[in-house]
Design brief:
Elements (H helix, E strand, L loop, with lengths): L3 E3 L6 H10 L3 E3 L1 H19 L24 H12 L3 E4 L2 H15 L8 H13 L2 E2 L2 E3 L8 H8 L7 E4 L2 E4 H8 L10 H6 L3 H31 L9 H5 L4 H13 L18 H4 L1 H22 L8 E2 L5 E2 L7 H29 L21 H17 L21 H32 L7 H11 L11 H14 L1 H7 L7
Parallel strand pairs: 1-2
Antiparallel strand pairs: 3-5, 4-6, 6-7, 8-9
Helix pairs in contact: 1-4, 1-9, 3-6, 4-5, 4-9, 9-11, 9-13, 9-14, 9-16, 11-13, 13-14, 14-15, 14-16, 15-16, 16-18, 17-19
Pathway: Amino-acid degradation; L-histidine degradation into L-glutamate; N-formimidoyl-L-glutamate from L-histidine: step 1/3
GO molecular function: histidine ammonia-lyase activity
Catalytic activity: L-histidine = trans-urocanate + NH4(+)
Length: 507
């Protein structure tokens, strides 16, 4: 793909993934550099003339009324970073941290932050050369920006903290030395420019959102396999039903289901075997569709945020310095809560279809999809594990954005908890991948018990991809290994891509 140009206005979710996960290098457009230089001139003039402006010549938060002299500006910025780096817990993954760095760069190059080009280039060099700061996941309130985690991002720039370089965790100073990147000293406004923004919650949410699209496609493919395994009824997906309740996600899902099972002899019509299917089969368009509508709404908001300015204060082209609230994470907090709820429901209905596959009281298949039941447990405990994940998702789906705890001596009296919302959405999606993978394995196992039938062309393709990784289970095996393989297969998009070569799955 080559180097990706960063200009503050054209970053996409897919580009974030290419850079964060594909290690693509970035370059900054000349126009963006010009804007950064102009913004910096304004900061230098403010300092030179001892003008009182928040975050430039004053303290922070409740200390906004404390004036800082020119001589103390550098000390102020360093103190800001080292005092704010108080995160806790396991670090963000390499790809999440790279996404955080990228989004902060994209914010800075818009030219409203007052950072020096030299400081910006240091962060770019770290991203391109693979110096990845260790950033603990916990500690952000999601307003005043992601202060604590972003402070950890900055530490290696100052020769402090820790980083990963060439796969090894080490001190930030050593990582910078090995990568050939000079340590810097922050000057007026720069510390605040680096940490006052929503880039941590947004970065985690961007990658989760990308993964959710893969999962939504896989959920349709999986549910089509289950529909065939249970000899479900095609009538529930007739366009006549969905045209009169025209939610786009519902319409798309019903259309997907019919395309996926086209040519199948497993599928039945109303009255052939039964008059109606259970809700977990019959209502796939309504449930999956609602989650797809949520996905599209979240995507729209994320695409706005990744190209937005989330600093405080804002330095305008006209030289004005405005204190506002663009650092407040509420726009992201609510949508990532929404995304988590939407993806939790994908897992919820998937687990119910899994139950219908393995429960002999609900179908005409061998109990727990295994020969010699009793001697073998088959898929019995896979449903337990899936149920545990679904239950955990219900806990995680409780909104973070409805909570707020005042901070900074009540100056910052309403916060978003948006970073918690993003992390929860990510965890829900990971859990749901496992649930859907379990259903997919069980559906293929059930299909193998039926003889004399033909799968749809698209579902046969999906089945073939699955069987390359996991085989029919004749007797009990160490189950988690196959479940791991199937989960990774889903995440890899191999199944989705193979099916999309035959039909187009619409989200």
């Amino acid at each position: 793909m080559g180097k990706i140009v960063i200009d503050g206005k054209s970053l996409t979710i897919e580009k974030v993934v290419h850079i964060a996960r594909g290690n693509e290098e970035v370059i900054i457009s000349e126009d963006a550099y010009d804007k950064v230089r102009e913004s910096r001139k304004i900061v230098d003039e403010i300092v030179k003339n001892d003008v009182v402006k928040y975050g430039i010549t004053t303290g922070f938060g409740k200390f906004a009324d404390v004036t800082i002299t020119q001589e103390d500006c550098k000390t102020l910025q360093r103190n800001l970073i080292i005092s704010h780096a108080c995160g806790f817990g396991e670090p963000f993954s390499i790809d999440e941290t790279r996404a955080i760095m990228l989004l902060r760069i994209n914010n800075l190059v818009k030219g409203y932050s007052g950072i020096r080009v030299e400081t910006l280039n240091t962060l770019i060099d770290m991203l391109n050369k693979g110096v990845t700061p260790i950033i603990p996941q916990k500690g952000s309130l999601g307003a005043s920006g992601d202060l604590a985690p972003l402070a950890h991002m900055v530490l290696p720039m100052l020769g402090e903290g820790e980083a990963v370089f060439n796969g090894e965790r080490m001190t930030g100073k050593k990582a910078m030395e090995l990568a050939g990147i000079d340590i810097i000293e922050l000057t007026a406004k720069e510390g605040l420019a680096l940490i006052n923004g929503t880039q941590v919650m947004t970065a985690v949410g961007v990658l989760a959102l990308y993964d959710s699209k893969i999962l939504l496609e896989a959920a349709d493919i999986t549910s089509a396999l289950t529909l065939e395994a249970l000899r479900g009824i095609r009538d529930a997906f007739n366009p006549a039903i969905h045209e009169i309740r025209p939610h786009q996600g519902q319409i798309n899902t019903a259309e997907n289901m019919l395309k996926l099972v086209e040519g199948s002899t497993f599928i039945t019509s109303q009255g052939d075997i039964r008059v109606q299917d259970a809700y977990s089969l019959r209502c796939i368009p309504q449930v999956h569709g609602a989650s797809k509508d949520a996905y599209r709404y979240v995507r729209e908001k994320v695409e706005i945020e990744i190209n937005s300015v989330t600093d405080n204060p804002i330095i305008t082209r006209e030289g004005e310095v405005y204190s506002g609230g663009n650092f407040h994470g509420q726009p992201m907090a609510i949508i990532f809560d929404f995304l988590g709820i939407a993806m939790s429901e994908i897992g919820n209905i998937s687990e119910r279809r899994l139950e219908r596959l393995i429960n002999y009281q609900l179908n005409d298949l061998p109990a727990f999809l295994v020969k010699k039941g009793g001697l073998n447990s088959g898929y019995m405990i896979t449903q337990y594990a899936a149920a545990a994940l679904v239950s955990e998702n219900k806990v995680l789906a409780h909104p973070a954005s409805v909570d707020s705890i005042p901070s900074s001596a009540n100056q910052e009296d309403h916060v978003s908890m948006g970073t918690i919302a993003a992390r929860k959405a990510r965890d829900i999606i990971n859990n749901t991948y496992r649930v859907v993978a379990t259903e997919m394995m069980a559906a293929c196992q059930a299909i193998d018990f039926r003889e004399g039938f033909k799968l749809g062309e698209a579902t046969q393709t999906a089945y073939n991809e699955i069987r390359k990784e996991v085989q029919f289970i004749e007797e009990d095996i160490v189950m988690y290994k196959d479940l791991d393989l199937c989960t990774e297969l889903l995440k890899s998009e191999k199944i989705n891509n193979a099916v999309n070569d035959i039909i187009k799955i619409n989200i």
